[in-house]
Amino acid sequence: MINLDGQNGSAAETAFASMLALGADHGLTVAIKDCLDVAGHTTRCGSAAYADAAPALSNSAVVDRLLDAGCRIVGKTRLHEIAYGMTGVNAFEGTPVNPRWPDRIPGGSSSGSAVAVAAGSVDFAIGTDTGGSVRQPAICCGVIGFKPTFGRVDRRGAMPAASSLDCIGPLARSMDMIERAMEIIAPDYRVEMLTSTPRMALLVTDETDDPEMLEAHEALSLAGMVARRVHLADLDAAFRAGMAIIARETLDANRSRLEAGAPFGMDIRLRLEGARAISDAVLAAAEDIRVAFTQSVDDCLSEFDVIVTPALPQAPPLLSEAADPAKVLPLTRYLRPFNLSGHPAIVLPVVTSTGLPSGIQLIARKGADARLCAVARWLCDHHPMFSDLRGES
């Protein structure tokens, strides 16, 4: 029996907001983030503000895809409240325990999905990624996280219902399972095989980054796998633009409940109230940055198969540091900009020389999701740092 109080029991037990038994008895086991509708169940979004909402009348599109493919959905996973935060700390439902680094944050907002995969509770899990919310918890917990091209996976039945940033994507322990998951949730996805060595560009990093977090990034250069180092001049502006857009869109999605006095956690309430200050002019400027940054990424990818970045610029903070903005806000420096641009991105985890969670991110052309996975698989085959990620042991 899984203990659902969120404070005791194993890390695997703390991943789940509720248990389900949907689908085939012997299919691939899957956990889904509790911002995705399941017919007959309340979509709580990790928040007291949604705990008394009416049960969903129908499944989200991704849940139907999973069930049609013969998967067994075993539970809905906890998340950072209303999928609006990067630590995974949740005072209402309880914070999932990072299985490998229990003193550190599990990451967010798809915290429970990452924990369920890292703990071995499921074959793969489904999360959502609006500003790194699949990729960041994946690295925090030491698993693979994939954000498909924006719009590649049907978002019907996801919360928020409208978003220009959010993508549904899988988390798994191996590239084999990531690709199997994508074949299920994206009906036009077909696995690709590389016929030549991929051309990889290494993003020039920021001098404030923690050198230990750059070990895997630099290892590719030392191994002669990188064609060239590149700059993306608008990266920091894209980060800020993504922050502005997510704030405004999250406020719009939750405005009626906020104004009705729904019991959001204090940190979320303050962030929603703060989002009122984002004017139409600020939003328009952010959209201009979206256009410019997207073009700069497209231009770079016209010469390369992938751009390689660090996954995180600094180590995931300790749970005791989770309330410190200086420890949390920079975590998505290299992740959030590619929600703004809509390019597919995948993170491969590694452990640093002192045992901390870290990794790299690969970005590919829009629509080249299968090619991106093929490059990630090629890295697993050709660099010992990633060899454990090729297939299930």
UniProtKB/TrEMBL annotation:
Domain Amidase residues, every copy: 26-373
Job of this protein: Hydrolyzes indole-3-acetamide (IAM) into indole-3-acetic acid (IAA).
Pfam families in the cross-refs: Amidase (PF01425)
PANTHER family membership: GLUTAMYL-TRNA(GLN) AMIDOTRANSFERASE SUBUNIT A, MITOCHONDRIAL, TRANSAMIDASE
Organism encoding this protein: Rhizobium wuzhouense
Ranges in coiled-coil conformation: none
Top-level taxon of origin: Bacteria
Protein name: Indoleacetamide hydrolase
Family membership noted in the UniProt record: Belongs to the amidase family.
Signal peptide: none
